[in-house]
Amino acid sequence: MRSAVSPILPSDDTHALLQSVVDVARAIFAAAASSVFLLDDTAGELVFQAVSGEGEDLLVGTRFPAHRGIAGWVASSGQAMIADDLTKTRTFARDLAESTGYVPNALMAAPLLSQQRVLGVLEVLDPSPRPRAGLEDLDLLSLFAGQAAIALRVAGRSAPGAGTTAGGATDEQLTDAFRAFLRDRSR
């Protein structure tokens, strides 16, 4: 799955919404950091668009090769991933992490999907080490990624006119699923 996302940075409103997504993801997972990358297909790069926590003052606008690291794998496969021990994860590009000034021990990543296209990747770095079901957390992260994809579509960053996601769900259905997930999680 690839995208034709423009390399243009999002508008102030879109950036604020993406920043909100990473701030909430970081809070819910009690993580050290969270970020959204957008895929710049023309340049073959992933670009930091919003960052919360470690690196938030430095990384927005930073670019990495779209074929490297876990974010690159998620962007190219269109599948979410959890890595609880990055020292044992071959896909992890330690040199890229070192260049940001923060090397996580664990991370979760989910693609931003819109109309069967990957727009980018949502990552959560070093989520709290609480016992977790794994798939439940990955589902929650994927719902956040869906919300970010909706924000990008509304802002005109994806092909106009479609109201469904890659899985065929409408924006309203995604929002309802996200609310239901949060209700169930708080019980």
Structure report:
It is a single chain. Strands 3-2-1-6-5-4 form a six-stranded antiparallel β-sheet, with helices on both faces. Residues 1-9 and 157-167 have low confidence and may be disordered. The chain contains five helices and six strands. The protein has 187 residues and is α+β, with helices and mostly antiparallel strands. 36% of the residues lie in helices and 21% in strands. It starts with 11 loop residues before the first helix and ends with a helix.
Counting helices, strands and paired strands, the structural category is alpha+beta
| Amino- and carboxy-terminal Cα gap | 36 Å
Count of DSSP E strands? 6
Total helices: the number is 5
- Give the amount of beta strand, in percent: 15-25%
Strand order, biggest sheet? 3-2-1-6-5-4
Unreliable stretches: 1-9, 157-167
Shape: globular
- Mean of the pLDDT scores? 78
Biggest sheet overview: 6 strands, antiparallel
The succession of helices and strands, N to C, reads: HEEEHEHEEHH
What is the helix content? 25-40%
Radius of gyration: 15 Å
User: What oligomerization state is this entry in?
Assistant: single chain
SSE layout:
Layout: H1 12-28, E1 33-40, E2 45-53, E3 63-65, H2 69-77, E4 81-83, H3 94-100, E5 107-114, E6 117-125, H4 135-154, H5 171-185
Antiparallel strand pairs: 1-2, 1-6, 2-3, 4-5, 5-6
Helix pairs in contact: 1-4, 4-5
